[in-house]
Amino acid sequence: MASAPLLSRRGLLAAFVLAGSTLALRPVRAAETPEAFLKAIYAAYLGDGSGIDLNDKRALDRYFTPDLATMIADDRARAEAAGDMPLLDGDPFLNAQDWEIKRLSIKVDHGAAGKATGHVRFTNGGVPVAIDLMLVQTAKGWRIRDIHYAESTLRGLYTH
């Protein structure tokens, strides 16, 4: 009879694990559209949000195409080895190091199959910011192929 409660506890544990894995899949499902992908990114910067930590290759791979993620990671490794600053010296989603985001607007233009352009507008510390994100759909979901800022592009940092 003592084994019955143990089985129940195991069953309960399995249910919690299953529920947890189902919850963990929700962000992936939410990112099935480019709009949801971008909204999830920028939600991390609103209010007291701590932003998105892009300090490892795995995190870079979650948001950027493989070639762009590799460019960013390789540049960081090069800079660290040389005791230098990486070319990307700020948050690529904001084109800034600090933020106080207000009036966020996200609009998406759907292009050819598997391509979209996200137009993100906001104020950062009262200064208007316009950023356009070139998106592609991959087997792992939507990823950023490039980011266009007013004066440059993210990919342009690494291909000059």
SSE topology:
Layout: H1 3-30, H2 34-43, H3 57-63, H4 66-82, E1 101-110, E2 115-124, E3 127-138, E4 141-148, H5 154-158
Antiparallel strand pairs: 1-2, 2-3, 3-4
Describe the protein in words:
The protein contains 5 helices and 4 strands; from the N terminus they run ααααββββα. With 160 residues, the protein is α+β, with helices and mostly antiparallel strands. It has 2 domains: 30 residues; 126 residues, Nuclear Transport Factor 2, Chain: A, CATH 3.10.450. A 4-stranded antiparallel beta sheet has the order 1-2-3-4, with helices on one face. A hairpin with a 2-residue loop joins β2 and β3. The relative contact order is 0.13. The N terminus is likely disordered.
Give the CATH level 1 class of the largest domain: Alpha Beta
What is the topology, as strand order, of the major beta sheet? Answer: 1-2-3-4
CATH-assigned fold name of the largest domain = Nuclear Transport Factor 2, Chain: A
The CATH level-2 architecture of the largest domain is identified as: Roll
Characterize the biggest β-sheet.
4 strands, antiparallel
Q: Return the string of H and E elements.
A: HHHHEEEEH
User: How many domains comprise the coordinates?
Assistant: 2
Q: Can you tag this structure with a few keywords?
A:
160 residues, Nuclear Transport Factor 2, Chain: A, 2 domains, four-stranded antiparallel sheet, 4 strands, disordered N terminus
Give a quick rundown of the structure.
This protein is an alpha+beta fold. Helices cover 42% and strands 25% of the residues. The chain has helices at residues 3-30, 34-43, 57-63, 66-82, 154-158; strands at residues 101-110, 115-124, 127-138, 141-148.
